[in-house]
């Protein structure tokens, strides 16, 4: 968040539009002023950004990818494929490993069967309920948006009426100010003339 905290009020409903030359001059002054302001600096009240702390495994993987090594296959799906029986009949360790793999595959298939059964029974209703909830959320957001737009329009209407009601008073004050400045200049000119006359004597 930039450290520019000033707010510039204007009277857009009663102010006259400035000329292109005046706008260009103002833009030039703003650009000159903004050069001295660090717009990228964070506000002092904001907490410092927290550095991410990954696990050792993730850190190693990120370092490996940063070194330009290719991505690897991810999850090994070979254990879920059709299993072959061990080639040697009397190798107990190979049979135990094959049995363990068969249990894993069986558990996976049971879980998939259960999930597919539930999806077939309840999936349609869950999908329809999800759509209904999303529709309700959308309607609520639309109502909130409409209310906010109406509130913005109301504030702008009040602002416009307040500015237009004050226009006469502001014009009178501006005329008084201009006349006062004119009289002040006349007095200064008369004083300068009087000084000149007194010095000339």
From TrEMBL:
Keywords: Coiled coil, mRNA processing, mRNA splicing, Nucleus, Spliceosome. Residues 131-165 form a coiled coil. The keyword NAD does not apply. InterPro entries: SPF27. GO terms for biological process: mRNA processing; RNA splicing. Pfam families: BCAS2. It comes from the Eukaryota. Its main location: nucleus. GO terms for cellular component: catalytic step 2 spliceosome; precatalytic spliceosome; Prp19 complex. It is found in: Nucleus. Belongs to the SPF27 family. This is Pre-mRNA-splicing factor SPF27. It comes from Cyphellophora attinorum. The lineage of its organism: Eukaryota, Fungi, Dikarya, Ascomycota, Pezizomycotina.
């Amino acid at each position: 968040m930039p450290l520019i905290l000033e707010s510039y009020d204007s009277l857009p409903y009663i102010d006259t539009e400035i000329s292109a030359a005046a706008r260009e001059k103002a833009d030039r002054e703003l650009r000159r002023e903004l050069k001295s302001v660090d717009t990228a600096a964070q506000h002092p009240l904001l907490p410092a950004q927290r550095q991410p702390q990954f696990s050792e495994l993730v850190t190693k993987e990120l370092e490996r990818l940063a070194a330009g090594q290719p991505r690897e296959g991810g999850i090994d799906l070979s254990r879920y494929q059709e299993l072959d029986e061990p080639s040697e009949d009397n190798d107990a360790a190979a049979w135990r490993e094959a049995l363990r793999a068969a249990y894993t595959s069986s558990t996976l298939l049971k879980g998939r069967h259960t999930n597919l059964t539930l999806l077939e029974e309840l999936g349609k209703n869950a999908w329809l309920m999800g759509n209904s909830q999303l529709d309700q959320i959308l309607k609520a957001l639309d109502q909130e948006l409409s209310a906010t737009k109406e509130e913005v329009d109301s504030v702008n209407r009040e602002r416009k009426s307040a500015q237009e009601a004050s226009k006469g008073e502001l014009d009178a004050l501006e005329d008084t100010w201009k006349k006062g400045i004119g009289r002040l200049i006349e007095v200064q000119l008369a004083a300068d003339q009087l000084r000149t006359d007194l010095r000339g004597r």
